[in-house]
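Sanity check

After download, print the first record. It should look like this:
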Amino acid sequence: MKQPLEIKLESIQLKQPIGPITSCSSDEMRDRLEKGFEIMLSKSEKIKENFNKKIKDRDKTISSLRNKLKNQDGGITDESTPYVDFKKEIEEKDVFILKLKNDIEKKNMKIRNMESSRSWRITMPLRRFSKKISGTER
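Expected C-alpha cells:
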C-alpha cells in the first residue's frame, strides 16, 4: 500500500518515485523528502524556463507585428497624402461654389426687386416700343 506522500508525489508525475518514508530513520526520511523536493523543484524550473521561452517568443512575435503595423500605417499615411490634398482642394472649390451661389441669389433678388418696382412697370411700354423699333424681340 502506498503512503499519502508517495501518492502525492506520483500525482505530480515524478520519474523517480520515493519508497515509503514512515518505516525509515529521520535522516533517511529527510534525504528522501529533499530528493522529492529537488525533483519537484527541477521540474518546476524546467516548466518556468519553458514558459519564459514561450514569453520571449511571444514578445518577439508581438514586436514584429508592431513593426509591420507601423510600416503599414506609414504606407497608409503616404498613400493618403494625395487624398488629403484632393479633399482640401474639393473643400476650397465647395466654398467658392457656395460664394458664387450667394452672389447669383443676390443678383436675382436685385433683378426681382427692380422688376417689381413702380418705375420698371411705368417704363415697360417704352421698353417694348424701343424693342419693336430696333427689331429685337425676345
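If your output differs, re-run the checksum step. Summary of this record's structure: The longest helix spans residues 26-115.
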